[in-house]
Amino acid sequence: MNALSRNRRRLLWAGALAALLLPALATAQTYPSHSVKIIVPFAAGGPADIYARYVGDRLSASLGQAFVIDNRPGAGSLIGTEAVAKSSPDGYTLLLISNTQTVNETLIPNKSYSLLRDFVPVAPINYSDLLLVVNPDTGIKSLADLLARARATPGKLNYASSGPGTPYHMAGELLKSMAKIDVQHVPYKGSAGARNDVIGGQVDMMFDAISTMAEQVKAGKVRAIASSGRQRSDVLPEVPTLAEAGVPGFDATIWLGLLAPKGTPRAIVTQLNAAISAIASQPEVRQAWSKQGAVPLVMGPDVFEKYLQDDVRKWAGVIQSAHIKLD
Fold first, then answer.
1. Which of 48, 242, 258, 276 could disulfide-link to 42, CB 3.0 to 4.6 Å?
2. Total domains in the fold of the chain
3. Structural domain span for residue 146
C-alpha cells in the first residue's frame, strides 16, 4: 500500500469517527435548549422535595434553562418512578431517587420497571441521618423507656412513616427486628402528614430526616430519642445514636440523587453530573446543608451506579433476614 492510499484510509477513518462523535458533541453543546422536568415521586414538603428544588434552582442558574419540579407521589414512589422509566431518554425528564427506590427493588419485585435496568445514574445529591422522635405526651424520654413500654404492651405503640418502603418505614422495621419489639406501622402518603400527626399526638413516634425534624425538636413539639447514624449529628449533638442508646449496630440514613431513563446520551449524563457535583462542592452549599444535618455526596456516574447496586443488595439482605413485608 503506497503512502497516498494510507493517508486516504486515515482520512476515511477520521471522517467516520467524527461522524460518530459530532452528534454527541452537538448534544452536549446545545443541552439544555428548553426546560427540564425533575419528577419527584414523593409529596411536597419532605427532604426529597426540598433538596430537589434546591438543586433544581441552581441547575437553572448554571445551565440557563428552568429545571421544573413535578411532584408525583403515590404507591411508595412507584407512580413517579414509572413515569420517568417510560419517558423519552433525551435528558429532559429526570428522576429524584432516594433509598425508597432501592428498597422497592426487593420489597416490590413485580414492578413494571427495574431500577438498574431501566435507568442510568446521573449524580447523587446528599444524605442525612434519621431522627427517632416521640410525641412528648407519651411520657417516653429515652430509648430505654421506649423499648420497655413496647415490650410491656406489645402492639400498643405505633409509628408513622411517609409510606411503605420509604427510609422512615424501613428504619422502623429495622428497629422492630433488631430490638425485638412489636409496634404498629401507620403509613402516610407523604412525610408532612406523618410529621404533623406525630406533633399533634395522633401517632406516638416516627423516624424522620434530621434536616426536616430538628427544628421541631428545638421548638419542643417532639422529643428526640436517638439518631440513626454511626455518629452523633452535629445538629443535635446531645442526642445519642441508636447504637449508643441500646441497639448496637443500628445504621440507617436517607440519601438522594438523580437518575435518567436508560438510553439518555452519555454526554448529557456527564454534563449534568459535572453541574450537580459543582453545586454540591460549593463551600456555601456544604455549610448550609451541614446546618440542616445533610452531607453532600459527590460521585461520577459509574461510582454512583456501584453505590446504587450496593444499596439494593444491602436492603435486600435486611428485608429478607427480618422478613419485612408490605402492610
1. 48
2. 2
3. 129-245
